[in-house]
Specification:
Layout lengths: L1 H18 L42 E2 L17 E2 L3 H18 L3 H16 L7 E11 L2 E14 H11 L3 E2 L4 E2 H4 L5 H4 L2 H8 L10 E7 L55 E2 L2 E2 H38 L3 E2 L5 E2 L2 E3 L6 H26 L1 H16 L7 E2 L2 H5 L5 H13 L4 E8 L6 E5 L3 E5 L5 H15 L2 E4 L4 E4 H4 L16 E2 L9 H6 L2 H10 L26 H4 E2 L11 E8 L7 H22 L6 E5 L3 H31 L9 H4 L2 H24 L4 E2 H28 L8 H30 L5 H37 L24 H13 L2 H22 L17 H12 L2 E9 L8 H5 L12 H9 L2 H4 L6 E2 H9 L7 E2 L18 E2 L16 E8 L4 H14 L3 E3 L3 H4 L1 H27 L4 H24 L6 H26 L6 H30 L6 H33 L5 H9 L3 E3 L13
Parallel strand pairs: 4-7, 13-23
Antiparallel strand pairs: 1-2, 3-4, 5-6, 8-9, 10-11, 12-30, 14-21, 14-22, 15-16, 17-18, 19-21, 20-21, 24-28, 24-29, 25-28, 26-27
């Protein structure tokens, strides 16, 4: 590509050097038809080294036998006359061939270009269109002649404008720029006009023209300044969408706007959902709220009517009964046959589970030491797998599924073309510096920002040189390594030198030479090279005639060298951009570590430079390794925060589990060791889970290390509190052993613990069906950890509680087991502080008639509002959130969004459907003349015409176009030796004795070419993930190939994160309903109320995420899955407690469940989580603050509100009708008396 680019640019500049050859002119010029002004070749211009010039001689036109070079002058055999010889035609053909290297993509443009020079050189009426203005004497081959060194050429504007317009949009695919930019000198493509285009071709100051030609463009009817006898040439210029007389096809759409088919505009992105002229989701939420309120009010009305009717019927039929003591009773005698099938199943399930767990608990409590030993052995057995643990830190492996589209496309691209290069970048600014005005004769008045100054360019160059000269000892290479060992060197990848390394910066316009900067007037050069869009020039307009190309041989586009400008006003740039590109080696390659080491040295130099008080720059910087380094750094720094969080939770559990009936027994009744044991049970369950998955080769991640212990601790602490508090509130029955009491207590609470643990474990196992690797591994680790936690609680923790109860019964102090106290333990149950408070105050106030109604209104409103907010949650994850506060990467992201004008490169890669061994296959990809109007590149171009939807920053280019242009016989670039020892081998294009590789472009290519193709472009810079995901989606849909950019694998998840989340959360909700129904004996109503409450918690959590600015992404999804598990703890215990209550009315049963189980849930879940969560607010990492502090705080508070406020109220209205009295009747299969329940009288007065 380097040689081709040089040829293309050099050819345009050599056109005039070869074109205007020496011709003999007449001694006296006459402007009349049939006379020549020039003829034949001889002489050289003494003022321009090596430039040919024509002699003066006057003669009539001559007959020319062959005019294939200028077909527009061909009048047929024997009738063609011209002012040029066969020798001149040969030279003209060679010069025009060079120009076709740039213009051959558009045959009509190339034809018009040749047309002009054929008229100037060979027109039979040449003397009517040109006027010699300067001659001089030159001695050539021993003969002195008067030669022409300057003349005027007169063209009608109709022809000049037409020719210019046909060439104006012809592109150079290799650079993405326009051919006219290299043929208009100092003005570039933007400022080029027909007059400037022709002036450049005839200006000897560019060092290429052999003599001065003053092109005069004459408007129709204009006579002033036109010499007598001169007739401006006004031939017809072909339009770019016309075929040429020689058979050339119309120019392609990419090179000619007129050739583009008329396409309907792309459909606009769907607008916001609207109903009744406003936000549709808001309307739906309001309607839903109204329907829920109406349904609730309708239920209350019907309940009151039914209650009133039943009350009247009961008063009529009521018969007063007497018991054996002649006391009035309101009980009736029932038979077991009256018990429903559902109730029998429910009570049978509870009786079976209670019996099993009672026996199990008694056994565990009887042999505590053996149980602890076996548990320790099992945990150690699982834990040994940690020797094989693999910690995944690669973001691609974490967030991109191996079978996802973006991941497969990345693997395919990397396999065939290699991975993206590694980027190391600085964005430098100099705020506060005063700008200046530069008055250019060529470009007019230009405003330069304070940044664009010679001293800052020099300072930047010195910094660049220092970085380029980094050297360090590499253990992997066993030698001193430098940039050239790892740099991206596109034009010399195998044996790279420092000057081959791709370094993009403003000093590259001076080839990184301090001498060039000092010798050149900087403003002029910058205007020419960068700010006039001429970075492809090999010769600037200064006296030195330096190239604008970088020292590694490629152009430096201004949007990669400067930033912070508007439009293309590069002189107003506010930032310099310095970019070092390294090869992106696989992690298994030894040079991967070398690249990491170079980047480490790079960061060190940059940080030292930033701390230097003498620097004139304010800047931001990053290395490819920076993201991973900063994430690892903040993780290590926040480990103490997590440790403090767990320590706070441990202290709370140890203190809260104590009984504290007497100051004298405080050391006896404390539960420090029990709390420590509970924490160890959680830790052992997490270690066992991690060890097991390490055994089978499933890698772990930092997310698992941070989230899973927190989740298992929340679940485990709740079960511990329920078990211990139930034991403390229980009184040992006469004749009952301590171990039997523990077994009986476990039989009462273990079914509830099983309900929650099994629901959560199944929930997480189903969550492992997720396609996202991070979510999948989290779900697997969490599922097994929760299951192991339950198993260890049923074994090790029961044994530990048995040992502690034995110590407490013996009045021994904790930690000082040899010390005993004389004060005996009270035989009264210890209800603690919380249970009486909730029984006496909280439950009655909450379940008051009016309060219940208010609670329903508030929570229904909150649910409806959260549903609306859920549809407005922001999807995405700003990458700066992964950085800790104060990280240098935060400054870099800020500079990146503010100053950089383009985004990452985008590659379009074909995988199948294109057979490049056929003409049709090539035409389906290319964008040159003759290519399909809807080829791959053309479709990308159509997309680029709508940047607001496609986000493509510049037009794409394909190797196929470059290859076709190189093969095209008209360009004479691909040449072969015709004879001699090198016959059939490639020869330099400058040797005209060689023959073309192909006779026609349509020659079918050999089958040795690649079956895959890659086209490239730059995407626009996008600041938000929703924009990036839209861009990725559009890019993928516009062309029949894969779209590859380095960010696709990260942002693809946002295209599916919403359905993925709904799928995962639905899978988690399903087992909570099924397990609840099964363990409560097919109690569908309790299972449904349980499910509804958890759904409301989840919806409200997403709603509060919107209010608190928490974005929805994979990390949030993991926390939402966790929220379902924690919600089970808040809800399921309460639901089961209500279902098994024997109180006669809904309200009384709700009060009992709220007081007894609600106090344990509040102490075990809410008060365990909250202290640990609050500590996380002090973490440095924003990711932890947002997704672990904020989101977990929301989850805990909403779970507590719904479990302890909303659920008791809902159960009091809609809970299961028949209570535990039926169970007592069923268990004994006997006739018993029971109170008339609320279900029989419908809701009762409290309802």
């Amino acid at each position: 590509m380097r040689g081709h680019s040089n040829t293309s640019c050099h050819c345009s500049c050599m056109v005039m050097q070869i074109l205007f050859h020496t011709v003999q002119v007449l001694s006296q010029a006459e402007h009349r038809a049939g006379y020549c002004a020039f003829y034949e070749e001889c002489g050289r211009n003494p003022s321009l080294e090596g430039a040919l010039i024509p002699p003066i001689n006057h003669r009539l036109i001559k007959h020319v036998p062959d005019m294939q070079v200028c077909p527009m002058l061909d009048k047929g055999l024997g009738s063609t006359f011209a002012c040029c010889s066969i020798k001149q035609l040969t030279s003209l053909e060679m010069s025009l061939t060079l120009s076709k290297a740039l213009l051959v993509r558009c045959p009509s443009c190339a034809e018009n270009f040749a047309h002009l020079h054929c008229i100037n050189t060979c027109s039979p009426n040449q003397s009517q269109t040109v006027k010699v203005t300067k001659v001089m004497n030159v001695t050539h081959l021993g003969k002195t002649r008067e030669v022409v060194v300057e003349y005027q050429a007169y063209l009608a504007t109709s022809f000049a404008d037409g020719a210019f317009q046909s060439c104006q949009n012809v592109r150079i695919p290799a650079t993405g720029g326009f051919a006219i930019a290299t043929m208009c000198g100092r003005y570039g493509a933007k400022l080029c006009t027909p007059q400037r285009w022709y002036d450049f071709q005839g200006d000897t100051s560019n060092g290429l023209a052999p003599l001065d030609i003053d092109f005069r463009l004459i408007k129709p009817g204009e006579v002033e300044g036109v010499p007598e006898g001169v007739i401006p040439y006004k031939g017809r210029a072909l339009k770019c969408n016309e075929t040429t007389p020689s058979g050339g096809q119309v120019c392609s759409c990419q090179d000619c706007k007129e050739s583009c088919p008329v396409l309907p505009p792309p459909p606009l992105p769907p607008g916001p959902f609207r109903l009744l002229g406003t936000d549709g989701f808001l309307v739906i939420s309001i309607i839903l709220f109204c329907l829920l309120i109406f349904s609730f009010l309708f239920f209350l009305l019907v309940s009151c009517l039914v209650k009133s009717q039943k009350k009247q019927d009961q008063e009529k039929k009521k018969k007063k009964g007497k018991d054996q003591n002649c006391n009035d009773v309101s009980q009736r005698v029932i038979h077991p046959a009256e018990v429903s099938c559902a109730d029998r199943n429910s009570m049978a399930a509870q009786a079976f589970l209670s019996s099993v767990f009672q026996k199990w608990g008694t056994f565990m409590a009887t042999y505590p030491l053996m149980v602890l030993l076996v548990s320790a052995v099992v945990v150690l057995g699982f834990g040994t797998g940690l020797m094989f643990i693999e910690l995944t830190t690669d973001p691609v492996e974490l967030w991109s599924a191996p079978n996802s589209r973006a991941r497969q496309e990345k693997d395919f691209h990397d396999k065939h073309f290699g991975p993206f290069f590694r980027t190391n970048q600085l964005i430098l600014t100099a705020p506060g510096r005063k700008g200046h005005i530069y008055d250019s004769l060529l470009f007019g008045t230009q405003n330069f920002s304070g940044l664009v100054s010679k001293d800052l360019v020099i300072e930047m160059l010195l910094l660049q040189k220092k970085i380029q000269n980094i050297e360090f000892w590499s253990e992997d290479l066993n030698r001193t390594a430098s940039l050239k060992d790892v740099c991206f060197a596109p034009l010399n990848p195998n044996n790279s030198a420092l000057t081959d390394c791709a370094v993009n910066s403003l000093p590259q316009y001076f080839q990184n030479s301090l001498d060039n900067i000092n010798r050149v007037l900087g403003d002029i050069r910058l205007l020419f090279c960068a700010f006039s869009s001429s970075p492809l020039s090999f010769k600037d307009i200064t006296d030195l005639g330096l190239s604008c190309m970088a020292d590694y041989g490629a152009p430096v586009f201004p949007f990669l060298a400067v930033g912070g400008y508007r439009g293309d006003e590069y002189t107003n740039a506010e930032a310099f951009i310095l970019t070092f590109s390294l090869n992106n080696y696989p992690r298994t390659n030894v040079k991967y570590n070398v690249a990491l080491q170079w980047e480490k040295e790079f960061l060190k130099i940059v940080q030292d430079y930033q701390s230097n008080p003498t620097t004139n720059f304010t800047f931001a910087y990053m290395a490819e390794r920076s993201l991973e380094d900063e994430i690892n750094r903040t993780t290590a720094e926040d480990i103490p925060i997590f440790m403090i969080s767990y320590a706070v939770i441990f202290v709370y559990i140890a203190v809260a589990l104590g009984e504290y009936s007497s100051w004298r027994r405080i050391l006896v009744d404390s539960k420090f060791l029990v709390g420590l044991g509970g924490i160890l049970v959680v830790a052992c369950s997490v270690l066992a889970s991690m060890g097991f998955y390490s055994w089978i080769g499933i890698p772990s991640s930092l997310v698992i290390l941070q989230v899973v212990p927190f989740l298992v601790l929340a679940v485990g602490a709740d079960n511990i509190f329920i078990f211990v508090l139930e034991y403390q509130r229980d009184v040992r029955k006469p004749g009952e052993e301590r171990e039997q009491q523990i077994g009986r207590v476990l039989g009462n609470v273990a079914p509830s613990m099983l309900l929650c643990s099994l629901s959560e474990s199944v929930c997480f196992f189903l969550g492992a069906l997720s396609t996202m690797p991070a979510v999948k591994t989290f779900a697997l680790y969490a599922a097994l950890a929760v299951l192991m936690d339950f198993v260890l609680q049923m074994t090790a923790f029961v044994a530990l509680l048995s040992l502690d109860a034995r110590r407490q019964d013996n009045n021994r102090c904790e930690l000082l087991c040899c010390v005993t106290v004389a004060t005996q333990k009270s035989n009264q149950p210890n209800e603690g502080f919380l249970l009486p408070l909730m029984r006496k105050y909280y439950a009655p106030v909450l379940l008051n008639r009016y309060m219940r109604f208010i609670v329903m209104l508030v929570f229904l409103f909150m649910f409806s509002a959260s549903l609306y907010l859920m549809f407005n949650v922001t999807v995405g994850l700003d990458q700066e959130l992964a950085m800790p506060k104060g990280s240098y990467m935060l400054d870099y992201f800020q500079y990146l969004y503010k100053y950089l004008e383009v985004g990452v490169p985008v590659y379009f890669v074909t995988k199948r459907g294109f057979n490049f061994t056929t003409e049709e296959g090539m035409n389906a990809v290319c964008s040159s003349v003759g290519c399909d109007q809807f080829s791959m590149i053309q479709k990308i171009q159509y997309a680029a015409n709508h940047p607001e939807q496609s986000y493509i920053g510049i037009s794409a280019n394909s190797w196929v176009d470059d290859f076709i242009d190189w093969l095209n016989p008209g360009s004479r670039c691909c040449r072969l030796y015709s004879f001699g020892p090198n016959a059939g081998n490639f020869c330099p294009h400058i040797l005209y004795s060689c023959s073309n590789c192909l006779s026609t472009v349509a020659t079918v290519l050999t089958k040795s070419f690649l079956k895959v193709s890659c086209a490239g472009s730059f995407g626009s810079l996008l600041h938000f993930q929703n924009d990036i995901e839209t861009a990725s989606d559009v890019n993928m849909k516009m062309v029949p190939c894969l779209s590859r950019r380095v960010t696709n694998v990260f942002y693809e998840q946002y295209l599916t994160i919403v359905p993925e989340g709904l799928f995962n959360i639905s899978l988690c909700l399903l087992p909570t309903f099924v397990v609840c129904c099964l363990l409560l004996g097919l109690d569908l109503r309790s299972g449904l109320l349980n499910l509804i409450t958890i759904i409301m918690i989840t919806v409200d959590t997403v709603g509060f995420m919107t209010l608190w600015g928490i974005h929805y992404n994979a990390v949030a999804l993991i926390n939402l899955v966790t929220a379902v598990g924690i919600s089970v703890e808040f809800v399921s215990h309460m639901t089961r407690s209500f279902a098994l209550s024997i109180k006669p009315t809904h309200v009384e049963r709700a009060k009992e469940a709220t007081a007894n189980m609600g106090s344990a849930v509040f102490a075990g879940v809410a008060m365990t989580n909250l202290p640990g969560i609050l500590v996380l607010a002090f973490a440095k990492a924003q990711l932890i603050q947002i997704f672990f502090f904020r989101l977990n705080l929301v989850i805990t508070l909403l779970g507590m509100a719904h479990g302890l406020i909303f659920l008791p109220v809902v159960l009091s209205y809609f809970g299961k009708c028949k209570g535990g009295a039926t169970r007592q009747c069923y268990k004994g299969y006997c006739v018993r008396r029971r109170p008339t329940t609320e279900c029989e009288t419908q809701t009762g007065s409290e309802n």
